[in-house]
Write a structure and sequence with these properties.
- The structure is a single chain.
- A hairpin with a 4-residue loop joins strand 7 and strand 8.
- The protein is mostly beta strands and 127 residues long.
- Helix content is 0%, strand content 48%.
- The strands form two sheets. Strands 2, 4, 5, 6, 9, 10 and 11 form a seven-stranded mixed sheet that branches.
């Protein structure tokens, strides 16, 4: 069974840091572009960051550039999202998703479908 599991969320004060993990089971992440999404209550889903299968290419949403870093360890079948200088507006459920059908280019485009999703992890940033 193909599965993605996120972890690492929690409650942190503004300015703090968290590192999210996305672990795959049932398939090898090496061949997949991975994207982190987030969704806050009452807001549309937002693409946060994505990373190519090799890890050599990354892309970030404007709201997180310079604060978040995506990385991957294919040996551990895991992708990470290091989040620094967190703000209350970063509060959301964060999801990872995997896609091996389309090239890395356009990975953050809204509406691009990702066939495999995790269940999400809650990140709450207090003021």
């Amino acid at each position: 069974q193909l599965q993605l599991v996120e972890s690492g969320g929690g409650l942190v004060q503004s300015g703090g840091s968290l590192r999210l993990s996305c672990v795959a089971s049932g398939f090898i992440l090496d061949y997949y572009t991975i994207k982190w999404f987030r969704q806050a209550p009452g807001k549309e889903r937002e693409g946060v960051s994505c990373i190519s299968s090799s890890g050599t290419k990354t892309n970030y949403g404007d709201s997180v550039k310079g604060r978040f870093t995506i990385s991957r360890d294919n040996a551990k079948n895991t992708v990470y999202l290091q989040m620094n200088s967190l703000k209350p507006e970063d509060t959301a459920v964060y999801y990872c998703a995997a896609d091996n059908r389309k090239p890395f280019v356009g990975c953050l485009v809204n509406g691009r479908e990702y066939p495999y999703w995790g269940q999400g992890t809650q990140v709450t940033v207090s003021a």
